[in-house]
Amino acid sequence: MPLLFSPLCLIRRCCCFFPAVISSPFSPPRCLHFASMSATAAGDRCTGAGVVANKRRLQGLVFDMDGTLTVPVIDFGAMYRAVLGEEVYAAHRASSASGGGVDILHHIETLPPAEQQRAYEIIARFEGQGLDRLQIMPGALELCRYLDSRKIRRGLITRNMKAAVDLFHQRFGLEFVPALSREFRPYKPDPAPLLHICSIWDIPPSEVLMIGDSLRDDVVCGKRAGAFTCLLDETGKYGSPDTYTDDIRPDFKVSTLSQVLSLLENHFDLIPQLQTT
């Protein structure tokens, strides 16, 4: 069951099921709701009308790729062990259990040049194997068609290589503009990639929604940029939202991309891209 955060609840003083309030220098305070996208929208609890009054403006969506637009196929555990070694990987696993962990790309940047090259070659090998099994995530095509019908911009930020992005575009007949791969530095969760896309679009981050399957990378990137954030959690691996800290708490949580359609309809005023001649 997806979780929705309604930014209007603080104004309307609507009672929230979970009283945590997000407060950060990057985005306005938002109030967390529990709701079912297939049945009752979070706005019902505030307005009783099935939608949220005074919807927030939205001009663009930015997606993660692996695990969001495409089905996860890379064995990240095996890749981490190959890059880090068993001992460091075991320490990473122990740290991750308590909320920490190693960011593999940032870890590689701390290595000497020869070790960096070896590590990138290992990652490229695993990613290359994943290209052969590349599959689009259920609901992705329908969501993209909907955005196109509404003339809403869509961009992409991934820590995967450019070859994977190019193949994704070619294989599924989709194009995300801009589409930033790991050749763009700095990587997520730094907000720079998202801010770069907003600059190209010439729209404020506060009118953009970042969607991804990682709290640490996608949600944090979006929050730091000042965008709305949506966590895609297909398997429920992130558990109850009462365990989230404010720095990783998304505005919305869904279990399928199909649920994003209702989220957009119920919570946002979609502003189409102006056509140039």
Give a written overview of the molecule.
The protein has 277 residues and is of the alpha/beta class. The chain has 2 domains: 3-70 and 134-270, HAD superfamily/HAD-like (Rossmann fold); 76-131, no CATH class. Helix content is 39%, strand content 17%. It has 11 helices and 11 strands. The chain has helices spanning 9-12, 42-47, 76-84, 86-97, 104-109, 113-131, 140-149, 162-172, 192-201, 215-225, 258-267; strands at 3-6, 21-24, 27-34, 56-58, 60-63, 153-157, 179-180, 208-212, 228-232, 252-254, 268-270. The strands form 2 sheets. A 9-stranded mixed beta sheet has the order 2-3-1-10-9-8-5-6-7, sandwiched between helices. A two-stranded parallel ribbon has the order 4-11. It is globular and about 55 Å long. The model is unreliable at 1-49 (pLDDT under 50).
Compose a concise summary of this entry.
This protein has 277 residues and is an alpha/beta fold.
In quaternary terms, these chains amount to single chain
Q: In which order are the strands of the major sheet placed?
A: 2-3-1-10-9-8-5-6-7
Rg calc: 19 Å
CATH class of the largest domain: Alpha Beta
- Tell me, what's the shape? globular
Fraction of residues in β-strands: 15-25%
